[in-house]
Amino acid sequence: MLSVVGNRPQFIKSAPLSVALRKRGIDEVTLHTGQHYDRGLSQVFFEELELPEPQYRLGVGGLGRDDMLSALRPGLLEAIEAERPDWVLVYGDTNSTLGGARAAVEAGVPLAHVEAGLRSYDDSMPEEHNRVETDRLAQLLFAPDDRSKANLEEEDVEGRAEVVGDVMLDANERLVPIAWRRSQILDQLGLEPGRYVVATLHREANVAQPRLGRIVDGLSRLEERVVFPAHPRTRAAIEREGLAVDLLPPLGYLDFAALASRARVIVTDSGGLQKEAYWYGVPCVTTRANTEWVDTVEAGANVLVDDDPDRLLEAVRTAEMPATRLELYGDGHASERIAAALYPSRPE
After folding, report:
1. Taking a C-beta distance cutoff of 8 angstroms, is the pair 107, 82 a contact?
2. With 70 as the cut, is the pLDDT of residue 18 above it?
3. What is the pLDDT averaged over residues 115-134?
4. Can 202 be counted among the known catalytic residues?
5. Half-sphere exposure of 328 (CA within 13 A, CB side)
6. Which helix (H) or strand (E) holds 143?
7. Is the distance from CB of 109 to CB of 85 less than 8 angstroms?
């Protein structure tokens, strides 16, 4: 198995699946594209989640979408040719995802896509193009829920789709209790549980003006403390524009999980964090006009405010979780189902 990873959510998702594969005696080779090249967004996750060191590191980061896809191709093809895996496995909707998918097809190796079938129906998002094309190329598509599988059926994708749940929930259930025990981040920052807001921004559209200024304007008008661990691109944009907001460096998974899971509200443009907020029981305010995680909105746990500072301010002030939380995105055993579907003849 050749697993292609390149950013924070992919490192988290790969952790429980790596364990499930090892239990079946599968030799997993990891390729780290380098899409996230800051240590706080990359190496620290391998250390904290106890992932095997990547056998391949491409060091491709800081490039635009087309340039990154071109730069990824030679290294991916070289690794696939050297390993000749049974499967190439990709996660989510990043440039690393699509690069791995295209290379697998070019090399004639079966492709499996974890988190298949998600749709925001926003063609302005590079992530939407990445996930749609990857789904069309994959032979095996692991959908987190029935809605995602239905999307694939409506699009008549050729690969086999299976509803398995969400591997990020697998990681969440295993790792958040560890984060609460180990992390000292709240004490270090002088925070009380339930009395602060966590904010993250990283999507390309949101770290450019005028959207960035409008979102930061809304955050700066909040009366409670806002804790903002900043993606390097976000920090650079805020500093370049001289916007008034307090920033933290990127945090490792355990510190961030401890911080986010005890916040009163999370403000984000991250798809993964919208789900995590729901599992934490923390209301979410999303700085996008749409989301691929529609169920969190329908459940009343997530509010879409786009880049409107007034809507952001009001949504944070009034945010609360619904009285009843439905089970969303599986039961914490997606990794075992994925491993079994990839290698049905290899029991644990």
Report:
1. no
2. yes
3. 94
4. yes
5. 23
6. strand 140-143
7. yes
pLDDT at 42: 52
Sorted by where each starts, the structural domains of the chain and their CATH numbers stand as 2-166+330-342 (3.40.50.2000), 171-318 (3.40.50.2000)
Q: How far apart are CA 17 and CA 22, in angstroms?
A: 9
Q: What is the pLDDT of residues 235-289, one digit of tens each?
A: 988 888 888 788 999 888 889 999 999 999 999 999 889 999 999 999 999 999 9
Angle between helices 95-107 and 126-137 (to 10 degrees): 30
Q: Of residues 9 and 309, which shows the higher confidence score? A: 309
CB atoms within 10 A of CB 162: 15
Q: Which is the catalytic residue, given 36, 202, 231, 333?
A: 202
| Dihedral angle sign, alpha carbons of residues 55, 61, 63, 64 | positive
Q: Show the DSSP H helices in the chain as ranges.
A: 8-23, 43-48, 65-83, 95-107, 126-137, 146-154, 167-182, 185-189, 211-220, 232-241, 253-261, 271-280, 294-298, 309-318, 334-342
Q: Residue 277: exposed, middle, or buried by beta-carbon count in 10 A (0-12, 13-18, 19+)?
A: buried
Contact 26, 346 (CB under 8 A): yes
